[in-house]
Amino acid sequence: MNRLFDAVAYQLCHFPKDDMFSAKENGKWNGWNTEKVQSTINQFSAGLLKMGVGNASFTAEDSVKIAIISSNRPEWLITDMAVQQTGAILVPLYPTTHPSEIIYILNEAETSIIFVGDKELFDKIESIKENIPSLKNIYSFDKIEGCPYWKEIVDMSNDSLLQKVNDFKKTIPEHHIATIIYTSGTTGFPKGVMLSHKNICTCIKSAKGCFPFPDAPNSKTLSFLPLNHVFERLVSYIFIYSGLSIYFAENMESIGDNLREIKPNGFTTVPRLLEKVYEKIMTKADELGPLKRTLFFWALNLAKVYDINKKGLFYTLQLKLARKLVFSKWREALGGNVEFIVTGGAACPINLLRIFNAAGIPVYEGYGPTENSPVISVNRRDPALNIFGTVGQPLSCVEVKLEDDGEICVSGDTVMAGYYKHPEWTAETIINGWLHTGDIGEWTNGNFLKITDRKKELFKTSGGKYVAPQPIENRFKEHSFIEQIMVIGADRKFVSALIVPAFPILKGWLHHKHIVIDSEKEMTKHPAILEKYERIINEINEGLGKVEQIKKFVLLPEEWSIKGGEMTPKLSLKRKVVMNKYNLQIETMYQV
Length: 592
Description:
Number of domains: 3
Number of helices: 21
Shape: globular
CATH class of the largest domain: Alpha Beta
CATH architecture of the largest domain: 3-Layer(aba) Sandwich
Largest sheet: 9 strands, mixed
């Protein structure tokens, strides 16, 4: 496998499947078999060639750029591979991307065609297309009045064009750019990361042997993280290459129902979604009777001290009983068959790793930026190769070093070709062959990598002391009453925090205290609640260094979200946005 689209041919040869891809239509799961997927990709490529998309120069500048903006569905990956086979380059967009950012990206990439998922996204593109001179065609995956249907391109295929596709795709070199992925633009203009077939295929082949996936072609996975993020796209190709079926969730709200319906063997996620699952479990615990509630918290306390590498006989027997009486219900809520969950995109709180793994729901944390295709390291299934609180050992295809300031640098065939049209940004990021990630890390137990913070997020107090906010935030997020937190203190006398309470948990506490409050806004001002959070903060502060301790805080009534603009599409916090939005509350904390 030297080009991404080779993965389908590999599956067709070694383990053809009836449900290679599956999506829910009219209340029923419909599967695409491997042969249908391969033939549709080839016909799609043939139609694109007929439209004049083909390119034989294999340079990023001369290649046709084709965009896609859609939720996860079989057509997404089919389009991806069909575009690849013509030598064109796919430019994926998050469905939630702001129109002004879409205009910037499509203009810089000089995109000529875009595929949209549904009417809402069609209307979004239609409303701005006059600002994108290069955009000539819009096609949709859903049948929409006034918009050409994607299968019209597939139907252009004929035997002569199919032969042309078969001959042409053999000539596509592994160094050709397969995709340009634009960053979310949290620190300025979006940057177009150019990834070649070799970049991603190298990562696939190395990660396939390291990721904790079952080696079983009859296994199922659920896909819901956006495919336009390279992490979900990478693992999708690993699934194809390994013969695991991919079921596409209907939407983010239906994930729970879809898990119970298809009973997958695993999926990928981000820590924020695991936090949501845990919060939901804790909310239901408040509804239990006295005996079941006591049993629940006995099991939870066992889980909080779980370590995959240290098990005494008495603890093991207790855990086995807890899994049978309590945690089995957690597994059932995830379908009952989960053998792996791989999390990335942000640091996962160590208490979540302990609790889920103790419950018999294996969660493995990995790490890597888009610029590295993306994986640098991951924890493995073997307990000896898995340490909670680290992101595991590096893949065999990369070399990792830490600069004097702790910045993580990586080299190897997975490192991007550069930023599209911006060699100056590339030169700042790749120095002497080493990709500078901007993340700060350290080695643990020899060659286990631990992320300690983002280089750009480190700040210095007015007293000249450096503070790394992320580890502090992760420590506080381990408490069930804290949903979200952002630590503040750059050029200030002390560290403070903005906190979004875990309102479902808080409401349960209020119920037990017989306190009635009508709104979440009122909760953030109530003396009993402020006193409760003061105690929580003081308790956690005891485990922190003096300069790291939170001296003041503000409770906020609304959760930070993608829609609100405070979170990126991969659910990372946009710190500058939050700082600007809550500037008044921040300044109030620092008033003498």
